[in-house]
Amino acid sequence: MKPEVIKKSLYDMVNVHITQDELKTKLLSFIDFQSEKGFPFGELLILHYKMFNGEETEEIYTVAAAVEMLILSFDILDDFEDDDFQDQPWSAKSNLALNATTALLFLSASVIRKTSFKNAGKAIAILQEYALRSIHGQHQDLLNRCRSEEDYVQMTMEKSGSLVALACLVGTALATDSAPSEVETYAGYIGLVGQINNDLADIEIWGEKNDLLNKKFSLPIIYLLNCNDAQLGFVRDYYENEVDKDVILTQQKLISEKFVQTGAVTYTEVMRKVYQNKAIAAVKQLQVDSLYKDLLLKYIH
Asked: Where do the domains of the chain lie, and which CATH numbers do they carry?
């Protein structure tokens, strides 16, 4: 999907629209850092634009870059809100980084508005609607109250699924006046599956960002906390602020073993498979060329 073209478009947007030199330098450094992870949201946008017979122009890469700009701003804000930005380029001088984030947010919609697409206004409306949905989900996540599977899935669909849906639906809107309902359905599941993958990866790594150490709730942790296992009483006590973090740190090996022994890992893997299958079923219902279906399925893993 030509990630190098998306990166060039990001550079062009900053160079053209940002005139303050220090701000421009900071934003370009953020883009360089983000580009190491790739641009999956921009790629999904372009894929959907082409899938619904949009004519390839340079402007579609500009819109893809604008959406990636929004995602970058959300990533930065998410790191600050989670106090998880120490290893990021925006960790130095947080006041300047937050101001740069504001620039990214406004520039994103402004760039799309200036394109020649017939449905540019509709695309901006989608961007704003689904970005706000994601913010709702993020706020729910920050409240850290999702202690059941149902609540956690709903929150994650809002927080992560809405951003994937945003990218897919903006690309679709620029190509056609009618988006199949399946697009929003599988997009939400793709976001959810991605977060479940993060949940599984997190419990294998003990460090400052570890969810359990930070008393956060993820699918495997929710399962673990609800297990009737006497040896896990101290973990439940930790979440109730009745024991210190040192107790958890001295029992890392036991906790890691319990994630496997209690079935927490298996449960989470099954949940991932359930939503992968739901996403695949929605993709298969699309009335589009099988080539595009195959490309979409690569994002469901």
From this structure: 1-176 (1.10.600.10), 180-301 (1.10.600.10)
